[in-house]
Design goal:
The chain is an alpha/beta fold. The chain has helices spanning 32-36, 91-97, 108-118, 132-140, 151-154, 192-199, 214-219, 238-247, 258-266, 354-366; strands at 11-14, 18-26, 44-48, 52-53, 72-74, 77-78, 101-104, 121-126, 160-162, 166-168, 173-175, 181-187, 203-209, 224-227, 253-256, 270-287, 293-305, 314-320, 326-331, 336-339. Strands 9-13-12-14-15-20-19-18-16-17 form a ten-stranded mixed β-sheet, with helices on both faces. Strands 1-7-5-3-2-8 form a six-stranded mixed β-sheet.
């Protein structure tokens, strides 16, 4: 049931119950497990546009965080038979075991078109309350994404070290190099593959809660700081914005997704809510510095207003070729840059992974 009164019926999938969240869609053909465990989906009910989901099962290596973070999951058809040499269980079993309520046998084309036309909106999935009027009232009383600080809900509670590198699944070995650079990662909902890539690039990583004060980070004397992805309204993450303002100019900084938006707000820009967001693994982004186009993995419902930067030393570096929105910026003099999309992918193409090398080069120059 959507907040505008439109509803869809389907077959119960996973855990039986009632869940609320913002209705959004993801256009990826694969990567459903990474989507489920991406903390940036906190507070959202995700519809997969590809019609057959679950055909390669679920395995522990493809998780992107400590748990499933989506509120609910909607698909056209569940593949109960799965085939992959790494799979350990079916999608349905995985959802049920983790307490996630979903629907299958839904006309996801119609639902996706409706969200595109009307925009992302509050919604509910229920296998218990089947009364249309009752559900509509419940949706209208549920939480809105605007003004919601969801990063605080998904962030770690205490600092921890990350030591796992990228996996080579064919050789079943973890690729890990030395620890030449000390990196502090602000956890607003960080995906594990960001940490794996950094670890494989000679980085020793300390992950800190999103609300960690800049003064605490400076005491650690890191070589660089990364502001991670995460869910919710970036303007509500005031503690992250304050930390970014205090750290800019003192250390090399790399921002990803929500981290990009937080850095933009720290430099005086504004953010706004997209009509239906960018979610999938096939979004074209143009690098204005090189003229090259990258196919990127994305997951965000807010964007930076490119024309709103008050700092004249900010340079827009990337734009989305679908709608022209800001996909990246850098400072002309300070070692600060960020992108709206996900260079770590998981799922998605690897076009943008050299951005991590750029971050490492910044730290090398600073040394």
């Amino acid at each position: 049931m959507l907040e505008d009164g439109v509803y869809f019926e389907g077959r119960a999938l996973g855990f039986l119950g009632t869940v609320f969240g913002e209705a959004v869609f993801n256009t990826g053909m694969t990567g459903y497990q990474e989507v489920l465990t991406d903390p940036s989906y906190r507070g959202q009910i995700v519809t997969m546009t590809y019609p057959l989901i679950g055909n390669y099962g679920v395995n522990p290596d493809d998780t992107e965080s400590r748990q499933i973070f989506v509120s609910g999951f909607i698909i056209r058809q569940e593949s109960r038979l799965f085939s992959s040499w790494r799979a350990q269980e079916s999608l349905g079993e995985y959802l049920k075991k983790n307490g996630i309520t979903g629907l299958s046998d839904v006309d996801t084309r119609a639902l996706t078109r409706h969200i595109r036309n009307r925009g992302a909106m509050r919604s509910v999935i229920s296998t218990e309350d089947l009364d249309i009027e009752s559900l509509h009232k419940k949706v209208l009383a549920s939480r809105s994404m605007n003004g919601a600080d969801l990063a605080r809900e998904v962030s770690c509670k205490t600092p921890y070290k990350w030591e796992e590198g990228r996996r080579d699944f064919l050789k079943d070995k973890v690729k890990k190099q030395g620890q030449q650079y000390e990196v502090v990662v602000y956890d607003f909902g960080v995906k594990h593959n960001i940490l794996r890539i950094l670890s494989s690039l000679n980085c020793r990583i300390i992950v800190v809660p999103g609300a960690t004060a800049a003064e605490e980070v400076l005491k650690m004397k890191p070589d660089g700081v990364l502001f991670s992805n995460g869910p919710g309204d970036p303007a509500a993450v005031t503690y992250g914005i304050e930390a970014a303002q205090k750290l800019a100019g003192k250390l090399p900084i790399f921002g990803i997704c929500l981290g990009h938006q937080i850095l933009a707000l720290a430099f005086g820009a504004k953010t706004f809510k997209l009509k239906f967001g960018h979610r999938g693994s096939n979004h074209p982004v143009k690098d204005l510095m090189t003229g090259k186009v990258e196919i990127t993995s994305q997951n965000h419902g807010f964007a930076v207003e490119a024309s709103s930067f008050k700092n004249t030393n900010i340079e827009i570096t990337h734009i989305n070729l679908n709608d022209g929105t800001c996909e990246g910026f850098s400072h002309k003099f300070l070692p600060v840059f960020s992108v709206q999309y996900h260079p770590e992918a998981s799922p998605g193409p690897l076009d943008s992974q050299p951005l991590f090398d750029r971050f490492v080069s910044m730290m090398e120059k600073k040394k």
